[in-house]
Design goal:
The complex is a heterodimer of chains A (150) and B (354). Chain A is 21% helix and 32% strand. Chain A has two helices and ten strands. In chain A, the strands form two sheets. In chain A, strands 1-10-9-4-3-2 form a six-stranded antiparallel sheet, with no helix packed on it. The radius of gyration of chain A is 29 Å and the shape is elongated. Chain B is mainly α and 354 residues long. Chain B has 15 helices and four strands. In chain B, the strands form two sheets. A two-stranded antiparallel ribbon of chain B has the order 1-2. In chain B, strands 3-4 form a two-stranded antiparallel sheet. In chain B, α11 packs across α12. Classes of the chains: A alpha+beta (150), B mainly alpha (354). Chains A and B meet through β2 of A and α7 and α8 of B. The structure holds FE2/S2 (inorganic) cluster. The site of FE2/S2 (inorganic) cluster has 12 residues of chain A, from loops. FE2/S2 (inorganic) cluster binds next to loops of chain A. Chain B: One of its GO terms (biological process) is respiratory electron transport chain. Chain B: Keywords: Electron transport, Heme, Iron, Membrane, Metal-binding, Respiratory chain, Transmembrane, Transmembrane helix, Transport.
């Protein structure tokens, strides 16, 4: 009794329907692996909690060094004998690596002339945010750099 | 000798009827008028493309596309391989001249309104080829893996990331990793020597086919003084020009060989004087002039959206220039073209002197 009330789909439409679905499925089957292939696999981020600079005798006062903190570069400046500054070295504008300009006492990005003061504050040029801060502690003639607790 | 040639010709002709093609070519005419000179720039661009293909293939024989070896392999090409410096230098110079002649070719076509019916598709394919050439330039710039290229690529791909929604995935697709790394180099190598050449050749084929089928356009405003057969008259003139261009190229490549610079080092600060290639300079410089916030929109984002829409409008000129399509004079086209040229030149110069 049910069958009489059900609408019949014409055979032609039915085939069209099947063909459309299978074509789409087929296309997805081709496109999906390609798109996934192009997406670079997630590499395990190295969780680093600190980096050490041990050779402090080579680190002259007024000099700067760039060290790797996990995947990120960090700029370390030796201001005085016992005073170190550690900041992220990735410019907040477009990610270029910054450098310390001793004569002007600023941190400078060559890419678009962005400037930061020695606390990491963006003072001129395009950078929208200050540089991230890190903590540098001196212990037994070794410099230990850790993330600033926010 | 001649008999042999004739025999071969008729052997082929019997099978594939090339005499039709020859007849077609001999019936093709190039109009002569005071602006005829512009007809040659397309051919010259084609010539540079051929040089790029040849020197590019030669370079792949020694080039190694990995971050550990790319720089060293180019050093090897330049110092150990015989004429390696020359081949690389020609590739670099020819790339620049290629884009330069495309600019001229494109703007001359624009001012002559050659894009009007029935040549809309020729224009569209041509602009696509122009965009592809820029991508060629951008991807090829990174391959030596030197400091300048490293930071230019960093900035260039970072700008892509500014675009909302699609920006980040697109950036990842281009870079192959969060940052510009060896993975980026591998990708750019694949783009530069596999993907782009394939797409470029395909579109170029269509572009040239359209030009052959439709013949040279006659200008709207110039008086045509006569016609010149495409083959052999125009073709031979083209060849002479190619020879001239080849000489210019050789002089530039020999006396101003391209440099290699320092190897890219992610832990070194960006060197002063970071610059993109000259054909990106006007965009780079305009982005610099935009303040970081305009109302609520990010300045950079606004710049990218503006350049993006300008690119789309440029691609679609034949479809919105209704006046020319109706056979009327459209002064607006002149103004747009002149504005674009002045803007590009001024911004480029500012980029170099500032
Ligand atoms: S990337 Fe540092 S100022 Fe633009």
């Amino acid at each position: 009794m049910n069958t009489t009330t059900q609408k019949k789909i014409p055979r032609k439409d039915f085939f069209k329907y099947i063909i459309n679905i299978s074509t789409s499925a087929f296309l997805i089957l081709i496109v999906y692996p390609i798109v996934s292939f192009l997406k670079p696999p997630k590499q395990r981020e190295v969780e680093v909690s600190d980096v050490k600079i041990s050779n402090l005798d080579d680190f002259a006062i007024g000099d700067s060094k760039i060290v790797r903190f996990g995947n990120k570069p960090i700029i370390v400046i030796r201001k005085e004998k016992e005073q170190f500054i550690a900041l992220s070295a990735a410019c907040t504008h477009l990610d270029c690596t910054v450098q310390y300009k001793k004569d002007e006492s600023i941190i400078w990005c060559a890419c678009h002339n962005g400037k930061y003061d020695l606390t990491g504050r963006n003072i001129s040029g395009p950078p929208p945010r200050p540089l991230d801060k890190f903590v540098a502690t001196l212990k037994n003639n070794e410099l230990i750099i850790t993330k600033a607790s926010s | 000798m001649k008999k042999l040639f004739n025999n071969i010709y008729s052997w082929i002709d019997e099978r594939v009827q090339i005499s039709d093609l020859v007849k077609f070519m001999s019936k093709k005419y190039v109009p002569i008028h005071s602006h005829s000179i512009w007809y040659y720039f397309g051919g010259v661009s084609l010539f540079f493309f051929i040089i790029q293909v040849v020197t590019g293939i030669l370079l792949t024989f020694y080039y190694k596309g990995s971050s550990e070896q790319a720089y060293e392999s180019i050093k090897f090409i330049m110092s150990k391989v015989e004429f390696g410096w020359l081949i690389r230098s020609i590739h670099a110079w020819s790339a620049n001249l290629f884009i330069f002649t495309i600019f001229i070719h494109m703007f001359s076509v624009f001012f002559e309104r050659t894009y009007r019916k029935p040549r809309e598709l020729t224009w569209v394919t041509g602009v696509l080829l122009f965009f592809l050439s820029l991508s060629f330039g951008f991807s090829g710039y990174l391959l030596p893996w030197n400091e300048l290229a490293y930071f230019a690529t960093k900035v260039g791909t970072d700008i892509v990331g500014v675009v909302p929604i699609i920006g980040e995935p697109l950036k990842l697709l281009l870079r192959g990793s969060e940052d510009v790394t060896g993975a980026t180099l591998s990708r750019f190598f694949a783009f530069h020597v596999m993907l782009l050449p394939l797409i470029f050749s395909l579109i170029l084929f269509i572009h040239l086919l359209l030009v052959q089928i439709q013949g040279m356009s006659e200008p709207v405003e110039e008086k045509v003084k006569g016609n010149m057969p495409f083959f052999p008259n125009f073709f031979l003139r083209d060849l002479i020009l190619w020879l001239l261009v080849l000489n210019i190229l050789a002089v530039l490549a020999v006396f101003f060989p391209s440099e290699l610079g320092l190897k890219a080092n992610p832990l070194a600060p960006a060197p002063a004087g970071i610059k993109p290639e000259w054909y990106f300079m006007f965009m780079f410089q305009s982005l610099k002039f935009l303040p970081s916030k305009i109302l609520f929109i990010d300045g950079e984002l606004l710049g990218i959206l503006l350049f993006g829409s300008a690119g789309v409008l440029w691609l679609l000129v034949p479809f919105w220039d209704r006046k020319t399509a109706r056979g009327q004079k459209n002064r607006l086209i002149n103004y747009i073209g002149i504005f674009a040229i002045i803007f590009i030149i001024v911004m480029t110069i500012l980029g170099w002197v500032l």
